[in-house]
Amino acid sequence: MLTLQFVAHAEIKKLSSGEKINRILNLVKEDKIVLVEGRLKPMEETELIQRTMEGINKNFKGIELCTVYPEIKRESVMDKFTRSVASALTGVRSGLTVIGPATVIKEIKRDPNKIQLLTTNGLNRKRSYRLIGKKRRR
Amino acid sequence: MIKKVKGFFRGLLSIFRKKKHIKLGLYGPPNAGKTTLANKISMDWLGESVGIVSKIPHETREIQVKERIEIKGKGGKKISFNLVDTPGIATRIDYEDFLKYKLNKTEAKKRAKEATKGVIEAIKWLDNMDCVVVVLDATLNPYSQVNLTIIGNLAAREIPVLVIGNKIDLKKAKVKNIENAFPQYKVVGLSAEKGINIEEFYDALFEVIK
């Protein structure tokens, strides 16, 4: 059975980077797919990879990770200022970070329009879940 | 504000560092061709190779440095650097994946353990780089999180970046996809193995390393 756990921004906003990563990794090691509201900072992402590598063993083979966020193409100076102030005050809460154990998630396929999560089950069959985005017409 | 102060000190430091050899890092996911490119650069300018290449992922599991490479460009321009070839960055390493390449269980486990250490080392070395060439396999989807994380980190550290779409000699290669994924960076398509477009790569290096 696939378990998804949502971690709200409010739950982790006061945690240090290390604590945030601990919390996420502990959930992933329980074989849960974690959906974190917002994005990790770039340095947090590399710290997460480092900590993942340190933790690899017989049962834990690593993680699959994917960050999705709205692309801001055109923005007025005022909008940019407002967004910057809001981010500084409340942290980056736009977007979504998906993190799961490599033993459960076979692959996260991503292109600009959609992300797909391919999981493995006990019979080693692939299952595909489209998380975000529309299927493109060909 | 902190970014501006850091930028100021980075600029100030670069004045003092200018006469020394800069560190040029090769980063990317496993099997993108980092060591093949390192070998090509080193063979072209020093006449010696950097490391062993193989089809098995995580062949490079330790940082490899080739010191004092000096390349010459158009109009007599020169740049010299220490070339740092890094292990491929990955988020998952399973020894069973290496068994497919006919390694025995002991070898596969050893390789996996060394590979995890290599990833950690590669990330630690990010802070030491003055300029980074991100080597991507042009036959693969560029929107992988590892690619985005590497490039996001370099941007956050304000390290100049040149993106390479390697393996353009293969039919499936699509450099345009990489250009679309990272429009803010200069992207050069090349084949490190066959030496295709290597001159364009050296020209681009001069643009990025100022």
Structural account:
Chain A has 138 residues and is α+β, with helices and mostly antiparallel strands. Chain A contains 4 helices and 7 strands; from the N terminus they run βααβαβαββββ. Chain A has a single domain (3-104), classed as Translation Initiation Factor IF3 (2-Layer Sandwich). In chain A, helix 2 (17-29) packs across helix 3. Chain A has a 4-stranded mixed sheet. In chain A, 33% of the residues lie in helices and 32% in strands. A 6-stranded mixed sheet of chain B has the order 2-3-1-4-5-6, with helices on both faces. Chain B has 210 residues and is an alpha/beta fold. Chain B is globular and about 55 Å long. In chain B, helix 5 (145-156) links the parallel strand 4 (131-137) and strand 5 (161-166). Chain B has a single domain (21-208), classed as Rossmann fold (3-Layer(aba) Sandwich), CATH 3.40.50.300. Chain B contains 7 helices and 6 strands, in the order αβαββααβαβαβα.
The total of beta strands of chain A comes to: 7
- Relative strand content of chain B: 15-25%
Stretches of chain A where pLDDT is under 50 for at least 5 consecutive residues are none
Q: What does the average pLDDT of chain B come to?
A: 92
Structural class of chain B: alpha/beta
Provide the spatial order of strands within the biggest beta sheet of chain A. 1-2-4-3
Spatial separation of the terminal alpha carbons of chain B: 24 Å
Largest sheet of chain A: 4 strands, mixed
Number of domains as seen in the coordinates of chain A = 1
Counting helices, strands and paired strands, the structural category of chain A is alpha+beta
Radius of gyration of chain B: 17 Å
Order of helices and strands of chain B: HEHEEHHEHEHEH
Give the terminus-to-terminus CA distance of chain A. 33 Å
The CATH homology group name of chain B = P-loop containing nucleotide triphosphate hydrolases
The percentage of residues in β strands of chain A lies in 25-35%
Number of domains of chain B: 1
Based on the coordinates given, report the CATH architecture of chain B: 3-Layer(aba) Sandwich
Total DSSP helices of chain B: 7
Largest interface: A-B, 24 and 26 residues
